[in-house]
Amino acid sequence: MCKRIWLMAAAIPGIPLPAQTGDGELEALKQSIAAAQSAGDNAWMLVCTALVLLMTGPGLALFYGGLVRRKNVLGTLMQSFIMMALGTVLWAVIGYSLAFGEGSSFLGDLRYFMLNGVGAEPNGDYAGTIPQQTFMLFQMMFAIITPALISGAFAERMKFSAMLLFMTLWSLVVYYPMAHMVWGKGGLLNAFSGGALPCFDFAGGTVVHITSGVSALVCALYLGKRNGYGSEPMKPHNLVLSLIGACLLWVGWFGFNAGSALGAGSLASSAFLATQLGAAAATLGWLVMEWLQAGKPSLLGGISGAVAGLVVITPAAGFVSPGAALIMGFVGGAFCYLMVVKIKARLGYDDSLDAFGIHGAGGTLGAILTGVFASHAVNSGLPEAAGLLDGNAGQVLNQTLGSLLAWGLAAAATLAILKICDLTIGLRLSPDDETAGLDLTQHGEEAYNLES
Q: What is the pLDDT of residue 15?
């Protein structure tokens, strides 16, 4: 027993090995410890993978589904659900390779086409303690939910066939290149792999939220307003569904952010805590603004604030202290309230479910604030002078430039893709179909059978 204790101690760096211990025994113990760590990390990552999938269906599906009018609820649910199928196939065939293959600074190569070579062995460039297949699955869930977020901007007025073509092209042209630039080996913005413009993005502020949010704004402007927008009531048909969806998003986001630690260690705990604090503080920030401006705090405002906080903290979750997470969350909640309630009304665009006001605006704010609050004391993988408060003012500039690059790519590519879809199969429902609703015209179904 004593000998085994000495062996375990010897496997820990810095503790000397007793002279009588054999090298073979020590090596066997080290392998046992490594296998246990790998098993624990893999179990954690599989749970996180399932949590991120939960964010799309049922989380986002219910959140968006409750916010539309009754005649469009099934069509809106379907837009999130279908991405669980379409996004999976695209990622397996070519997406993972383009995002995480070795290529240029902008895009990966085709070495993992059809998941060739993606198996049980870890890929040390990304996650050294879990099978590459697990890493691929985890990243797949990001590729599923990101385009689905855009659907909130064109809710109630895009044809289902056009949505499928748009999501396919957008994934190929926007998401996969952006994921490679930020997280892929040799990517332009990858701060941990020699990127020319090193940016910190722990779980997807630029990759997920800026790209989807800016694309959402372009979609809203290109398609134009819903028929009757501004003159007819377009209130959410079921806020109960939206509350359930928002709570599922909140829970699933722990997989999104804490899972991005790619292991079951202390960094995952730190990201988990930052996520909770950011969401909670943003809920209060939004509600305080709403209470002061409108006189009453609403449930819709509360859940919108929570999602805004989750967006804002995402790029920073593994890089900032609890205090910084609280500040970022509260500021983010107040800022997104102003974007959704004040700025949108002043500019007059119809971003149906506020995809830009929350994801685009919140993602940009979170990415820039990450450059302010990122700290080596929280994440030892960062430089000693990580963010502004650590003495590196230049990181704020890097974060801003990285955000602008994401804005430019998303806006230009989305406009081109919309034009292609419009010229080939048409984007928007006819006026009569829009009046009848997505459920009947696109899917031949109704969410509520009120005659039975």
A: 47
pLDDT attached to residue 21: 54
349: closest CA among 232, 233, 221, 234? 221
In percent, how much of the chain has pLDDT > 90?
A: 89
Would you list the domain boundaries of the chain? Answer: 55-443
Range 55-443: architecture per CATH: Orthogonal Bundle (1.10)
Nearest to 283 by CA among 319, 240, 332, 234: 332
Does position 226 have pLDDT exceeding 50, yes or no? yes
CA 174 to chain centre: 14
Cβ-contact 178, 211 below 8 angstroms = yes
pLDDT (tens digit, 9 = 90+) per residue, 278-325?
Answer: 999 999 999 999 999 999 999 999 999 999 999 999 999 999 999 999
The whole-model pTM stands at 0.93
**Cβ-based burial of 21 (10 A; exposed 0-12, middle 13-18, buried ≥19):** middle
pLDDT score at 212:
98
Q: Which of 17-21, 47-51, 372-376 is least confident? A: 17-21
| CB burial string 322-350: b at 16+ within 10 A, e below | eebbbbbbbbbbbbbbebbbeebeeeebb
CA dist 153 and 353 (Å) reads: 6
